[in-house]
Amino acid sequence: MKILIQNGSLVLPDGVKKGDVLIEGGKIAALLDSGSKVGDAEIVDAKGLLVSPGLIDLHSHLREPGFEYKETIATGTRAAAKGGFTSVCCMANTKPVNDNAAVTELIKLKAKREGVVRVYPIGAATKGLKGEELTEMGELQESGVVAVSDDGRSIVDANRMRLVLTYAAHFNLPVVTHPEDLNLTNNGAMNEGYWSTVLGLSGITRAAEETIIARDCHLAALTGARLHVAHVSTAGGADIVRLYKAKGAKITAETTPHYLYATDDWVDGYDPSTRVNPPLRTKDDVTALIAALKDGTIDCIATDHAPHHFDDKNLEYALASTGISGFETALGVCWTALVAPGHMTGEQLLSKMTSAPAELFSLPGGVIAEGGVADITIIDPSEEWVVDSSLFLSKGKNTPFNGKKLTGNVVRTFVGGERVYERGV
Ligand code: DOR
């Protein structure tokens, strides 16, 4: 079957251009002039809309196997499609942990059978995420993992991290670090500062994140390994990444939509949906992260989609599980935070959510090009909408953006030429 996406503004590697996209056999068969006629194609009208490469998320939690009451591959990938994502990488903090080929194979099989977007598992760096014995990274890579990470937990022992990096380098596998010194976090509930004092909540110093970013960047420089820094949330964290990139270390970094928009004053009211790890920081951090995205220090935006059950969140603030259900608000939050106020063009933002992540983990997609996979997201850049988490396809309704008005929304998502999401259908 052929599909012709007509009259849209195509987000191409060399700029935004008016045109049509012909999809056939799961591939982009041709890029044509606007209003082209193709006999037997189904027409999708994209007038006034952006036709973007499908969004790619390097950091999510699909919770399956083991935590299906929070999310499944079926619900998580449908939420991802609604958020415009065509590929998602899923972290290893499942039950059992994805620290061996059997679990990776299970995730891939489930994704094929029950998922609607491409799923790329990330394997654990240490067995059971315990920070001790290294995983069989070669075997994990053969079974399909695209990176290794103990995300959700930091590898406490610096020498163990050095060994993780050294071993992963043999396979050219990126190591994703969850930068958090647990001694410095000290069971804190929110960012340490004015608001933690006012609200009487125990604070988490930014040093908890920054010391591990510094340690791991230094170890990456030492070992020559590929290090990807997860969820950078502080100005200082971005500065350290910038410094080590300048030294030529193989370091890449992500931040998330929530660190680009929400701040620690949102915790006023003790809404547990604002509880996330690392915690929401300050306006100065947001400003610095935007600058770091713009100058290339932060390579991409990932969601850290972390769905939780109501019962895990609906607790006293400090006891609530950390995490934000992020797939379905990512584009709107980023558009509202970055494009609407003029910090970036839509094209620049989309490159941070498409071509950049594809390149970092060598994933297919990320560009609209003849012969490439037909992973495409159609976006209405001017649509204003109000987040209603009760309408989320994710099982996790935990979002601090509920009730917020956003600009920019996903209209349709195609994976391999298949329509996996259409607004209002
Ligand atoms: O807030 C978070 N939630 N941060 C993480 O690093 C892990 C995640 C989770 O798995 O819930």
Descriptive account of the structure:
This protein has 425 residues and is an alpha/beta fold. It has 2 domains: 2-50 and 373-422, Urease, subunit C, domain 1 (Roll); 54-360, Metal-dependent hydrolases (TIM Barrel, Alpha-Beta Barrel). Helix content is 29%, strand content 23%. It contains 13 helices and 18 strands. The protein has helices spanning 73-82, 101-114, 137-143, 158-170, 182-185, 194-199, 207-223, 235-246, 283-294, 310-313, 330-339, 346-353, 355-360; strands at residues 2-12, 15-24, 27-32, 42-45, 50-53, 55-60, 85-90, 118-121, 148-149, 175-177, 190-191, 203-204, 227-229, 251-255, 300-301, 376-386, 405-415, 418-422. Strands 1, 2, 3, 4, 5, 16, 17 and 18 form an 8-stranded mixed β-sheet that branches. It has a 5-stranded parallel β-sheet with strand order 9-10-13-14-15. Strands 6-7-8 form a 3-stranded parallel β-sheet. Helix 2 runs parallel beside helix 3 and helix 8 (235-246) packs parallel to helix 9. The protein is globular and about 65 Å long. The two termini are 20 Å apart. The mean pLDDT is 98. The structure holds (4S)-2,6-dioxohexahydropyrimidine-4-carboxylic acid. (4S)-2,6-dioxohexahydropyrimidine-4-carboxylic acid is lined by residues 61, 93, 151-152, 178, 276-277, 304, 306, 322-323.
Keywords:
Urease, subunit C, domain 1; 2 domains; eight-stranded mixed beta sheet; 29% helix; 23% strand; binds (4S)-2,6-dioxohexahydropyrimidine-4-carboxylic acid
The hetero molecules present are: (4S)-2,6-dioxohexahydropyrimidine-4-carboxylic acid
Helix content: 25-40%
| Gross morphology | globular
Number of self-contained structural domains: 2
Q: What does the largest sheet look like? A: 8 strands, mixed
Overall average residue pLDDT: 98
The SS-based structural class is alpha/beta
Task: Identify the CATH architecture of the largest domain.
Answer: Alpha-Beta Barrel
